[in-house]
Structure formats: C-alpha cells, structure tokens
Amino acid sequence: MFDTLSDRLGGVFDKLRGRGALREQDVRDAMREVRIALLEADVALPVARRFIDDITEKAVGQNVLRSVTPGQQVVKIVNDALVEMLGGDDIVGLDLAATPPVVIMMIGLQGSGKTTTTAKLAKLLREKQGKKVLMASLDVNRPAAQEQLAVLGEQVGVATLPIIAGQAPVDIATRALQSAKLQAIDVLLLDTAGRLHVDQQLMDEMKAVAAISSPKETLLVVDALTGQDAVNVAQNFAGQVDLTGVILTRMDGDARGGAALSMRAVTGKPIKFAGTGEKLDAIEPFHPSRVAGRILGMGDIVSIVEKAAASIDEEDAERMAARMAKGQFDMNDLRGQLRQMQSMGGLGALAGMIPGMKKAKAAMQSSGMDDRVLLRMDAIIGSMTPKERARPDLLNAKRKIRVAKGSGTQVQDINKLIKMHQEMERAMKQIKKMGGLKGLGALFGKGGMGAAMPGLGGGGMPPSLPGLGGGGGAPDLSQFLKK
What we know:
Blueprint: H1 3-17, H2 24-40, H3 45-59, H4 62-65, H5 70-86, E1 102-107, H6 114-129, E2 133-137, H7 145-156, E3 159-160, H8 169-182, E4 187-191, H9 200-213, E5 217-223, H10 228-240, E6 245-249, H11 258-267, E7 271-275, E8 283-285, H12 288-295, H13 301-311, H14 314-325, H15 331-343, H16 346-351, H17 358-366, H18 372-382, H19 386-390, H20 397-407, H21 411-433, H22 436-444, H23 449-452, H24 477-481
Parallel strand pairs: 1-4, 1-5, 2-3, 2-4, 5-6, 6-7
Antiparallel strand pairs: 7-8
Helix pairs in contact: 1-2, 1-5, 2-3, 3-5, 5-12, 6-7, 8-9, 10-11, 15-18, 18-20, 20-21
C-alpha cells in the first residue's frame, strides 16, 4: 500500500535531511518533486496543487529555514498536511446511535467487492462490537449474488435473509426490516445491486430502497486499484445519494494510493474502512495519521500492537510468559512465534509498519525473502520428533540429515534454524537473570513502555510478539536465507 509514493517521497526527504541548512530554493525544488510524486500516484490534480501550495507556504517560513533540523521540520509539515488531506486526526467510525435495527446500506459499482465487504463488516460488528447482525442481498440482477451473500454469511457466522425468488429490491428491503425487528437485530446490512457504470436506473433503485429503510449509514464501496476512476465514481454517487462514508477495497494491492489521498478532499466524505486482503477479517478502520506515517516511512507501531493483541491467544501468552520467566525456550516456542508472525500479516506487512524499515523491506524483497521463509522454517520444525523439538541439542548430524530430507531443505538450513533458536534461548535466560518479565518491566519504570501500552506484559510488549517478547530479540531471518 502506497509503496511507490512512499519510495519517491523517501528519496526527496532523505536529501533534505542530509543538509545542515536549507535555502528557500531547496524547499521549493523538493516540493516540486513531491508534486510530481503525487501526480504519478494518481492523486487528483486540484488536490495535489492545493496540497503543495499549503505545505510550501509553511515550509519556506523563517521558523523552518532557521530551525536546527530544517529537514525534519519540513517532513513534519508534510506529515501534518497528509493527515489533514486524509481526513484529520480523528477516525470516523460507524454511527450506530439509533433505535435498532440500525440500517447500513452498502452501495457501489459491480466488481468493487461490495458483497464481500458487506460480510467483512458484518463479521467485524459481530466479533468486535458484539452486535447481532442480519445481512440481506438486494441484488436481483447479478447471477447468484444472493446465494453468494448466504455462503459468506455462513463463513462469518452471521444470519442472512432467506431468498425468495422474483422479489424486487424494495420488497426485499421491506421484508428484511420486518425480519430484523422480529429477531431483535442490532444492525441490518443491505447489500444493494451494482452496475458496470453509474446510471439513472441504479440511482432510482437506491433512492427507493433508502426511502423504505431510512439507513443510518450509506457506505460507498470503491476499488482503490481503479485510482482516479474510484474518485470519479464517488463524486457521482455523492451527488445523487446522501453518502455518510467510503470503504476502499484492495488497499493492499494499491501501490500508488491516489484514490485514498484524493477521496476525502474531492468528495468531502470520510474513508471509514479499508479492505486489506481477501480474507474475511481483512478489513480495518481507516486511521489518517497511521496511513500518513506509513507513507512517509515513519511506521505504524500502534497497528502492530493491535495486530499482536488480536492474534495472541491469552492462554498461550500466559504459558509463554511463564516459560520465559524460567528461561525456557524450545523449538515449539519458536514455532509458535513464527506462526504468530504469519497470523499478523507476514514479514512484509510487519516490516512496512516498523519505523525506518522501508529500506530493510526493500532489501528483503530484492533478496527473495518473503513469507515462504516462515513456511520453510515451520516445515523444518514439523519434521523433528517431539523429543527433538523439546531438546534441540539432540540434533546430531544423522538427525539433521533426516530432518532436512523430511522438510525438503538442506542441512545448512537446519543449522541456521538451530543457531537462531540458540540466540533466542540465550535471550530468554538473560531475562531470567534480570528477574523475569517483572524485573524487565521495572527497568522501564512507571512511566515507561509498560505504562504507555497497558495490558501488554510487564515489558510493554505482548509476551509472544515475535522478537519483541519481553526484549527477546527478533529472529534473525536474514541469516536463515543466506546460502
């Protein structure tokens, strides 16, 4: 997400940071490059022009040019402007403050991912907010559209309105409302029909459904990969329907990011959610400040912690913390760490959120390092016997050959994995000497990391967060790749 734009801006700001003093012309030259980067990222021209004018005016001010760190000051100005362009500091969530059932109407063009996004949103509402949700498909045009929502409903554990062939969308909406009231449903999601393009028939149908259901939220689902077209579609819908927000799908595949950067400025409507993958839990609230941080290579530690908290099993975390306190760490523990990294989005997703890791991420990609490394390491550990996993010191030459054959790897890969394990085991023993997690947490004091991130273990990080478990040191995956 935003990789192309992020790389271009990173190059511009590296030049600025490398200079002890800045002239006004230096800033203007840099802003010209930023403008080109925005246009190449498919940001709307009026938005890019206004953005550059605003930040140039602030960046050439005397407070910046006379600053001790003018390059950093310029980056901060750009960061603040990006946050503002994306919607401001505050995230705009769903407005569910109404008498149940609260109706959310999903609209958009055909192929934008509307039906899948409806199911993702239903899952989010059920699991994160504890809402009783009902989904209803009003799409009578696309073949098997209603059946698709029913299948997705089973997968996410959310009820769908029974299908009655031949009913018109308005009649389905009426029946959905009656059913929701009878079942004491909290939120009713209406998945409306789409078209290949915006036309009057589509708009009339949506207006008729809105008149019947009085939706509290009307969310437009648009495909981020279509770039400027997505913004044009949003403008057309916003002119006809009372939109309350936008959901951008396929954000994980959009290396340019022009749609996200232009959407709020052009339509005036907030981006409420972003689809970040094909899985039904791959949807997250849109945080303007976090997105700006990722674009400028500042990372997104808060999202990493949230991903860790969501993926950690509480019992596993407590068990891991107890073992760490005793200085214990075997191959089963290492395997758990690696699997948690996968559940948090893999190496690429994590590297993109860690401050200063843009270059490291690029190096990983150029060396061919990807999530297959995690799978290969998991296969190696899986090829060991239970005794070998519990006591890696049993792995002599003969056993290593057997494990290598069983996992489809080489003996040198087994040696690298063992070395990684030994390094992490030494770190666990060091933690024990320091008094375990409580002793480590005391080093940070009451106002340290532990206080900043409450509930995430004595040391301020989840005990089973890979490589951050109480200061355990990250697995050296780059060593694993070297031949």
